Amino acid sequence: METLLGGFQAEIGSISSDIKVLQEKSMDMGLKLKNRKVAESRLAKFVEDIIVPPRMIDIIVDGEVNDEFMRTLEIMSKKLKFVEVDPMVKTSVALKDVLPELERLRQKAVSKVFEFIVQKLYALRKPKTNIQILQQSVLLKYRYIISFLKEHGKEVYTEVHAAYVDTMNKVLSAHFRAYIQALEKLQLDIATSSDLLGVDTRSSGLFSRGREPLKNRSAVFALGERTNILKEIDEPALIPHIAEASSRKYPYELLFRSLHKLLMDTASSEYLFCDDFFGEESIFYEIFAGPFAVIDEHFNTILPNCFDAIGLMLMIRIIHLHQLIMSRRRIPCLDSYLDKVNISLWPRFKMVFDMHLSSLRNANVKALWEDDVHPHYVMRRYAEFTASLIHLNVEFGHGQIELNLERLRMAANDLLVKLAQMFPKPKLQTVFLINNYDMTIAVLKEAGPEGGKIQLHFEELLKNYTAIFVEELLLEHFSDLIKFVKTRASEDTTSSSERAITVSEVEPLVKDFGSRWKAAIELMHNDVITSFSNFLCGMDILRAALTQLLLYYTRLSDCIKRIVGGSSLNKDLVSISSIMYEIRKYSRTF
């Protein structure tokens, strides 16, 4: 038993050492398997990344440029990057086999997409093509081609870039040139170099302006409905052939807005497309060099011949509103262009404004004067012109315009005073000035409540001249009464000096007034109605005159009460209430 068990023990010992050996072998095999798996996965990835499958070759060489082609291009792009980037790959033997094939495939892909894209770009040149639809629905689908060329075909990308810039530059320049030519046929000439505030337009004689109907003449100085364009700033641009069919003509600022509306919309669309398709904003400026030049050329021929100050001011406002629209769209591509246009408009406006100013300063007073006390047409022009500019400057608040309008006001007032001095009688001079100031204030008020300093200035002048006229009118009918009241009525009547006022001194005044005061008031009323073109202004003046007369007569009555024996005149005195009744009667006439 002992030997049997001993043999058993020896056997178990050898089995245990066998198990150990097997365990070591198993661990060794496990490790080898793990290493092989790692090697295999790396190798499989390497093989997958470096191998060029026949299907890929077929698609790139013979396939059409479509969605599958684009996916294949992306896979090929990854392979090309893999070969370039990994240093291990560069030393591998496999690369030497694959690289020539891969390079040939790259060249084939680059030349194929180049032909494809150039062909699409030429479609943009076809007449009557809707460029924006072509860009959005066709070209943007193939934007990956551009990034592929940027990475793997730089020399070809440069050609595509140049071809696109050249195509769009020519197409858009031609579009704008054609649009501008069509707009020029619709232009309505509003002002020439002789349409100035202080120029006499009555004597144009044979050479009178036959270019446009008379109703447009008022547009030189009055804003009228032209201001509506600022409310329609975002309306679609004019379509020339439709406008031409209705045979309407338009002031230049309307065409100017249309042209810039078209420019803004085209530029916004192109700028966003360049950013999406090429990933470069700078291309926009290369493309638009042409259209900008076309618009500049047009503008440079229009601006030197523009003598329409209100039109120029409207254009300045339009540019300002267009800048706001572009900043709301968050598209900066027209910033410098719109600034440039704005900078060119201001000096022209200033020049035309100064021409108006000089025309008032150097006006021929004799040629302008008419023997008529009603508002003068130069003053009406001035009032409408000033009201228009004040109205356009409200939201703008441009200090320079306010300064210039102040200079214009002084020149207009100087000319008006010179015209007034042509009347032989002081009374006519005063009536002429009152009529003109009243009309000017009315026009400024009509333009809106923004008349400001200028309106206040004319109101002050109107007040002063009204007081002068009232005195002149009363002196004409009651000179003795006024002279007495002014010189004697304030003296002390009770004093025993030699100069004491006596009943005999006052009696003729009282009897004279009593006999003809109603007739005199009627004469004054008729005088006022014929003198003043504005009925309300005339009635205010008459009321002021009658009130002043009442004051004079009241002072006379008070004076008589203080005279010794003055009560004997009571029967001849007109009662204050009678005069008040008469004044009220004239107040009721309007």
Largest sheet: none
Q: Are there runs of 5+ residues with pLDDT below 50, and where?
A: 204-215
Name the beta content range.
Answer: under 5%
Helix/strand structural class: mainly alpha
Annotation field: number of helices = 21
**Portion of residues within helices:** over 70%
Rg on CA atoms, Å? 48 Å
Series of H and E elements: HHHHHHHHHHHHHHHHHHHHH
Description:
This protein is mainly α and about 600 residues long. About 75% of the residues lie in helices and about 0% in strands. It has helices spanning about 1-50, 55-60, 65-85, 85-90, 95-125, 130-135, 145-150, 155-185, 240-245, 250-275, 280-300, 310-330, 335-360, 365-370, 375-395, 400-420, 425-445, 450-485, 505-530, 535-560, 575-585. The radius of gyration is 48 Å and the shape is elongated. Mean pLDDT is about 85; it is low at about 205-215.
What is the element layout, followed by pairings?
Blueprint: H1 2-50, H2 54-62, H3 67-85, H4 87-91, H5 93-123, H6 131-137, H7 143-152, H8 154-184, H9 240-245, H10 252-277, H11 282-302, H12 309-329, H13 335-361, H14 365-368, H15 377-393, H16 399-420, H17 426-446, H18 452-487, H19 503-531, H20 535-562, H21 576-587
Give a quick rundown of the structure.
This protein is 73% helix and 0% strand. It has 590 residues and is an all-alpha fold. The longest helix is centred in the first third of the chain and has 49 residues.
